[in-house]
Amino acid sequence: MTGDAVAALDAAQVDYAGRGRVLGPVDFRLAAGEIVALVGPSGCGKSTALRLLAGLEPPTHGAVRRAAGRGETSVVFQSPTLAPWLSATANVSLPLEMAGVGARVARSRAVEALGRVGLADAVTARPAQLSGGMAMRASLARALVTSPKVLLLDEPFAALDEITRRQLADDVLALWAEQRPAIVFVTHNVEEAVYMAGRVVVMSPGPGRIAGEVAVEGPAPRPPGFRATETFRHTAERASALLHQAMGAPP
Q1: What is the pTM of this model?
Q2: Which residue of 51, 55, 120, 211 has the smallest Cβ count within 10 Å?
């Protein structure tokens, strides 16, 4: 790993039998503590790139470099993927227990993590008793309980209503300010990408490549009214134009 990068893709390509190439080649660097959004059309390989960074699959060609220690990379998927037979506390403590942390300490740290995401009153609830937004908060708590260096978010808000999406976006940024993990955030929503990230990477239609990127100026976490600022609107328009250009459409 070079410089302060905590994860990287080096000319990474992914080919699937019967489908051909779905990604790449892609070169990508993730610096310590930065937030990067991946934006692109369906089927462009955003989630595939995330799986490479998570170590869930290898590239067909090229290389992946990542923080590979236990608990150093955490993933939150679009579906909360909570074990339905376990309480919120037991779900969140699982990564710690799997890493060898004693059950009592793991449960205590899980309760603390749930409190940080606003679920202090739901520590004994099972997933069926949680709303969609609450279940996603529990998934975030589980991902952050190990204090990872890298947090990978694969469209975590896609199934939620707009109000809940915005609340969770602010929650993620507040949690980021506490622990400062590097974050890769996959989304179809350009405005959501600009709100969340310091850098928006735009991908072309599959097989996905990086078409370009846009830097986002502004403080993080975002201050109230950030979406109404000229900086936000101008950056969102630039990212949208780059996406349209990548898709071969007029801006």
Answers
A1: 0.92
A2: 120
